[in-house]
Amino acid sequence: MTAGMDHSGLEEELRELGRLLVLPPAPDVSGAVRERLAGQPPRAPRRAPRWAVPVAAAVAALLALLAATPAGQAAVARLWEFAGVVVRSGAPATPAPPGGAGTLPGQSRQDLATARRQAGFPILVPRRLGTPDVVLVADGGRVVSLIYRTGPGRPPAGTGGVSARLDEFDGTLDPVFEKVIAAPDVQVVDVNGSQAVWVPGPHSVTYLGRDGGYHEESAHLAANTLIWQSGRVTLRLEGAFSLPAALAVARSTT
Amino acid sequence: MASARGGDLDAYEVLVVRYSPLAHRTAVLFGAGDDAPDVVQEAFVKAFRSLRRFREGAAFRPWLLQIVVNETRNLHRSRSRRATLAARVVALGGSGPAEVSGADVEALAHERRAALLAAVQALPERDRAVVTCRYLLELSESETARALGWPAGTVKSQLSRALDRLQAMLAGDSAESGRSGGPRADRERR
Hints:
CATH topology of the largest domain in chain B: Rna Polymerase Sigma Factor, Chain: A
Helix content of chain B: 55-70%
Helix content of chain A: 25-40%
Structural class of chain B: mainly alpha
Distance between the termini of chain B: 36 Å
Number of helices of chain B: 8
Radius of gyration of chain A: 21 Å
Strand order of the largest sheet of chain A: 1-2-3-4-11-10-7-6
Largest sheet of chain B: none
Strand content of chain B: under 5%
Oligomer: heterodimer
Largest sheet of chain A: 8 strands, antiparallel
Order of helices and strands of chain A: HHHHEHEEEHEEEEEEEH
Number of strands of chain A: 11
């Protein structure tokens, strides 16, 4: 590499990376600072909050994983995204480049029967949406995505011709459901007797992630999202649904 | 500022509130990890106590950030550990439902950002510091110089080297996918 080459693309990517990083929310130190400056005895350094250790451990584990293959990186990112640690960033739907974009690392397209054999959990299918048009299995059967194109009983398609997407993840995310503290429009709702979360439209969310830490991020969902659990499986439905329509889909999922 | 210099805690509190988020972000990105709140608190206390030495007319922000960066480095020295760039790449979200190939594009963007973050973390210290200030924190060149305590002319050349190195690391990554980590062998100390 020679010095002085054009890095403007890379520079822009780095700025974007900075904006997309989710960091712990800044603490309010003004009271503590004032107390110390007002001549009161210096406070003992604040004890790390109880979740600090798990967070550090989770970050360390995560970064170790990230050092693995790019395929691993993407899979980890998506898994964590799923587990509720991630609120979506505001990236607009990216148009597919001509000729297609290849496959998601670690993800393969299967028919439903094959996917059922590969998945490490019972795949749930919402009766209300009919048969999925595309079934994707990722991360050794830990994540399954059902993709629906437009059709009867399905919401209008967003950009790209996809009407709805249901991601299923082998795992639960209890803390998220207890501590969803979010923009006023995020609702905790009920699906078959379990708590679920409805996230309509673009907004900012602060919530307790799977690693026990609070996360704050500006999110700009391109569509509405319903997250719920069924047994040991966590499901996320995305699409231009109203809340009642999304709930009806969730309740028809067996 | 003038009243804060006079010891007015009320006025100073305004500065504390205004600059806490950036100070905290800086501490985290420089690797303070869970100690970031303590670093920020300490930095504001130290900044206040040395307001006398603060040059009239200079900008408070980069001056404060320099204290934050130094405090974070002291932390590393005292703990003999260097927390990684604690930002979570998992924080990188995607967009809503898109075409299947669109989902792949989204995944590729994730992957690219993950690779970029990993590459930034693998940079030698000075490169990482300058990239963090200039791009992740979006400071100006002169603020970056101030925050890092460098001569003003150093930032541009260090940035250029850092970007060359990043580009090479990213090119190497895609050429041999599966290789872990980045080129750490040439870690420099200056």
